[in-house]
Amino acid sequence: MLRNFLTVGGWTMLSRVLGLVRDQLLAAFMGAGALQDAYQVACRLPNMFRRLFGEGAFNAAFVPLFSSVLVTEGADEARHFARRTLGGMLAWLVFLCVLGECFMPAVLRAIAPGFLQSGERYALAVTLSRITFPYLVMICAAALLAGVLNGLHRFGMASAAYLAFNIVGIAAILGAACFSANVAIVAAWGVTLSGVVQLGLLMWACEKANFGLVPLWPRLTPRIRVLLRRMVPGLVGSGVGQINLTIDTIIGTLLPAGSVSLMYFADRINQLPLGVLGSAAGTTLLPVLTRHLAAGDHEGAHTAQNRSIEYVLLLTLPAVAGILVLADPIMVVLFGHGSFTEHDALLSAQSLRAYAIGLPAFVLVKVLSPAFFARGDTRTPVIIGIAILVANLLLNLAFMKPLAHVGPPLASSLAAGLNVASLAVILRVRAVLYVPRLLLVRMGLVCLAALGMACGVGAAMWEMPFPAHILPRLFWLGLMVSGGSVLYVVLLCLTGIMDFRQFVSILGRLKRGGRNKGA
């Protein structure tokens, strides 16, 4: 399980790094203003549907069902089920895409009401949204193929294919800059083209795994009905995070121009640890839990759940501490260039700190949700999800005036805390979640190590002021991050959480795995 966790996490990390380069280019060429706001809203819509219909509720319902059919009835029956599902999904998505293209002006009035105050920004957002909306068809179909590959325990290609989004996006932005084209328009076309590339790569990977999937004509078979019963309620339950972000966007459009952009770039930094750890944990844990439960091994399911909790907190807590201390220099170094001024970067850093507060909760939701999905329960997350959506909306309305661009991120973080607390309490009452005292003690020591790291980095910042020029700033930030990482590992070893020889052994396995992968 650790190897699969690291495989998915490694590919996701590479994707996030490329995504960071893409975001730096977007910031440099479009800044933090009306143009950037319009582009980000245009990307929010297909990404929301991708998370809901692709990676969220669908994945949570499809992967356990597919894995169960594969184990109990064999590969041929599992392939037939996947093909029938793919045909139904494509029919539904194409219909949804046509509706979206026809009624995009009305859709934008709903999700970006603040844009109506500026006719130019609203018109541009409608144009860009119509360009990016077909992306949802390709990426949701790609999510199904990735789910099949995950069910076959081929996690590498399922994660690697998503690199195409950022590679194609970077090429589109640079191409637009070189030929003096409208960067927003070309970048929007790059989004849709990346969906075509990702879908093609995953189709090729399925063929290579001798599991080619040609869609079948949609039919409401008994198994498809089971899938829908599990999936439809989960649209709210597993999509709470994305819906909350969409609420943040709606509120952001009502704030001064540029607020959507400030929150977007802050969220992108927050998504580095969240995407890597949350995606890796959720992707690898769900099929593992499903296998243990199908075999009646409830003790194994408890162990896998607790191991995932320990892994993600071990890596998430220092990320939170580091972001809280280094938010200003991180945003200035990474984004304070070109049209995105240093003042914009400092404002965005305020949003980043608010997002970082909720980072452990965001990740733990990804770890706890599979405990429901693996048992076929999507109803409970729906009930919790509705309550969390209401709480997030109320918090947004309360914070938007006094806190401006900090309000929506803080509301999302507090809502995520309520979400994970609710999931944990219900799992504990059902005797599904059992956290031993030893794990609680270890996590307390991890908190102390993360706090010690933050204090150490803060002291180093006091002794070494932030330089004035870009190259010294890069070196300074790299020194702070690497020094903090080393200090954290040392503190883990001193507290007994990690043995130094064990740490060296893990690094050796990762290095050998990288060489084998390259061969």
Tell me what you see in this structure.
The chain is mainly α. It has 2 domains: 2-435, no CATH class; 436-519, no CATH class. 84% of the residues lie in helices and 0% in strands. It has helices spanning 2-30, 34-73, 75-102, 104-111, 119-132, 135-151, 155-160, 163-178, 183-208, 222-237, 240-253, 259-294, 298-335, 342-357, 359-373, 379-403, 407-429, 437-463, 470-494, 500-518. Helix 15 runs parallel beside helix 17. The two termini are 22 Å apart. The model is unreliable at 513-519 (pLDDT under 50).
Radius of gyration: 22 Å
Q: How many strands, which pairing sense, and closed or not: the largest β-sheet?
A: none
Helical/strand content category: mainly alpha
Give the overall form: globular
Distance between the termini: 22 Å
Q: Kindly give the count of domains.
A: 2
Give the total of beta strands.
0
What pattern of helices and strands is seen along the backbone? HHHHHHHHHHHHHHHHHHHH
Low-confidence stretches: 513-519
Helix content: over 70%
Question: How would you state the average pLDDT, rounded?
Answer: 82
DSSP helical segment count: 20
Percentage of residues in strands = under 5%
Pfam family, one: MurJ
InterPro entries: Lipid_II_flippase_MurJ/MviN, MurJ
Pathway: Cell wall biogenesis; peptidoglycan biosynthesis
GO molecular function: lipid-linked peptidoglycan transporter activity
Key attributes of the depicted protein:
519 residues; mainly alpha; 2 domains; 20 helices; disordered C terminus
